[in-house]
Write a structure and sequence with these properties.
Helix content: 10-25%
CATH topology of the largest domain: Alkaline Phosphatase, subunit A
Strand order of the largest sheet: 7-6-5-4-8-1-9-11-2-12
Strand content: 15-25%
CATH superfamily of the largest domain: Alkaline Phosphatase, subunit A
Number of domains: 3
CATH architecture of the largest domain: 3-Layer(aba) Sandwich
Number of helices: 12
Shape: globular
């Protein structure tokens, strides 16, 4: 065989060109602008009408109004009717049913840790990531924000302050107890101010690299607590329905001016904090390098001016799912532009990934679509699409119950069946032409049966698809005794069962996984007992009982031998009067004292 000979002259002639190509590529990489910073501002239960920019003549939101004027806005942006499902979709780009999140409490808002979040994807490319405020997708390992891509976290537990998920002493919006990187800390001041100040410190310490901030206010969610000066201003204003624009649906009869004064005060406080944030970006010369997104998680909880839309939080009518969406990037995104194309929570993650030039992993299935071509004003062939929203109480999603299918022109909606009680599947959905009837007043289902049938068929296919991969009877398990979280504080937020709830007599269980064989201590915390009782703990086949004297507020089981693996943790107090669960349960894996136990 004759060896192939390559002349030295040929090699020399090629080699400089190869170096030149490498040099050009290196220069192109060096010349590419750094990826932008990203700040997402998300408020809780702030309705479409809770902005001066949306023709509210009473509320004072000058900073948010300015942000709206200087942003590109989506006028038809949709979210889920309640918060946990919306947050799961925003952070994953996937419909919430795929993530395992079906509701907001008693173990139904635990996002599976195998989901890939926007924070994880950005952190993987060098972003510094921080969350401040509300998470509401799991309070324990492996579902906390610090387990799902956020490197810095200052958050409250559960769905809101003043709920059973609060640690003791954390029941107020003032001086509350928050979780800082997994550890409880006592804060000083009003919660919205505390979140903003923490976000500002994070921005200042991160400005040498791209950063991602998730600033998720839990206001104006109940309890309606607000600094007195903010509330007083609105108590002194005329707030009767007559002062608001008379458009679409009227303000419902249950409207309260006193409640509205508190809510508007909470929103104005948010507005002041948004102003602080925008001013600090200017001072740090970061504004031109920072994308700022503002939206809310669902419609308003209490009756008030809602831009004339039908319904409130918890409904798939427009008033529960249509929210503001502003995206701001000076010099890169056109100010004052409105986009009429329908968009939704599932689109946020793919849009921000495109803006930040972060590729989506090939094995990651997103439901959302990047809105960047529309935002950038490109001439693009934008395919028609149908968006789907659904929420009702219950452990398991049910087809046809409290759902909406939304296209650019039409909306098929079945709004009843939200509660856990019986409903009537045979009732036909309603059909609205949203272009002509955005306030959903004229049901066209009888006149356009072919449209209703087509959208129902699309919805049925969607429901079958998004519910196919999860067993909703078994939520994501809380991992106990792990190196990442030991001890673990369990609350009524995440327990399950037919008697689970938030009343004094509620009783439930937690689906857990013990990280290792060993001795575990379990302490029950409960209100002072009026008479002697017994405390019970059951883990699979292992059961234990302890006497509880009258007046006691806790009971400890400090010698429970438990094997690693999945299990169900049940606890309850039994007396002559009643049987009920504890308020809090602390689970601690004790230090090993000998050789590992065999299975």
């Amino acid at each position: 065989m004759i060896p192939r000979v390559v002349s030295k002259r040929w090699r020399l002639s090629v080699f400089p060109w190869f170096l030149l190509i490498l040099a050009i590529k290196s220069l192109a990489i060096a010349a590419a602008p750094p990826p932008p910073n990203v700040i997402v501002i998300l408020t809780d239960d702030q309705g479409h009408g809770d902005l001066g920019f949306h023709n509210n003549p009473v509320i004072r939101t000058p900073h948010l109004d300015r942000l709206a004027r200087e942003s590109t806005r989506f006028t038809r942006f949709y979210v889920s009717p309640v918060c946990s499902p919306t947050r799961a979709s925003l952070l994953t780009g996937r419909y919430n049913y795929r993530t395992g999140v079906v509701d907001t409490y008693i173990g139904r808002s635990l996002m599976h840790p195998d989901e890939t979040t926007l924070a994880e994807l950005l952190a993987g490319t060098g972003y510094r990531t921080g969350i401040f405020g509300k998470w509401h997708l799991g309070d324990n390992y492996p579902m906390r924000p610090i387990d799902q891509g956020f490197q810095e976290a200052l958050v409250h537990k559960g769905g809101g302050i003043g709920q059973p998920s609060d640690p003791p002493g954390g029941e107020s919006y003032f001086d509350t107890v928050l979780q800082h990187n997994g550890k409880a800390v006592k804060t000083r001041g009003y919660c919205s101010d505390v979140y903003t100040e923490a976000a500002l410190r994070f921005i200042e310490s991160s400005r040498s690299q791209p950063f991602f901030v998730w600033l998720a206010f839990n206001a104006p969610h109940t309890p309606l607590e607000v600094p007195e000066a903010y509330e007083r201003h609105y108590l002194e204003r005329e707030l009767s329905p007559a002062v608001f624009p008379q458009m679409g649906r009227p303000i419902p009869p249950a409207y309260s001016t006193n409640i509205t004064a508190k809510i508007y005060g909470m929103v104005e406080n948010i507005d002041d904090n948004v102003g602080r944030l925008l001013d600090r970006l200017d001072q740090l010369e970061l504004a031109s390098r920072t994308v700022v997104v503002f939206l809310t998680d669902n419609g308003p909880q209490q009756p008030r001016y809602n831009s004339g839309f039908r319904g409130l939080k918890g409904t798939v009518y427009e008033g529960g799912i249509r929210v503001p969406f502003f995206i701001h990037w000076p010099g890169k995104i056109e100010a004052g532009r409105s986009i009429e194309r329908i968009a939704a929570h599932i689109d946020l993650a793919p849009t921000l990934l495109a803006i930040c030039r972060v590729p989506t992993p090939p094995n990651l299935r997103l439901d959302g679509r990047s809105l960047w071509p529309l935002i950038a004003g490109r001439e693009v062939d934008w395919p028609e699409r149908t968006l789907f929203l659904q929420w009702h109480r219950g452990d398991v999603p049910q087809a046809g119950r409290a759902f909406a299918a939304v296209t650019q022109d039409y909306k098929l909606v079945r709004a009843d069946g939200v509660g856990e009680g019986a409903w009537t599947p045979a009732l036909p959905p309603e059909l609205y032409h949203l272009i002509d009837d955005p306030f959903e007043r004229r049901d066209l289902a009888a006149q356009r049966p072919e449209v209703a049938a087509r959208l129902r068929q699309a919805y049925d296919a969607w429901f079958a698809d998004v519910t196919a991969q999860r067993d909703y009877r078994m939520p994501s398990r809380i991992r106990l005794g792990s190196e990442q979280e030991n001890p673990s504080l369990l609350t009524r937020q995440d327990w399950r069962g037919p008697e689970a709830g938030w009343t004094p007599k509620s009783r439930g269980h937690w689906e857990v996984e013990f990280a290792a064989n060993g001795t575990y201590a379990i302490t029950l915390h409960f209100p002072a007992q009026t008479r002697a009782a017994q405390a019970h703990v059951r883990i699979g086949a292992t059961a234990a009982v302890r006497p509880v004297p009258a007046g006691a507020t806790e009971a400890t089981f400090d010698d429970l031998e438990v094997n690693a693996g999945p299990g169900r943790l049940e606890i309850w107090l039994e007396s002559e009067e009643t049987s009920a669960g504890a308020n809090y349960v602390m689970v601690t894996r004790q230090p090993a004292t000998g050789a590992p136990r065999s299975e």
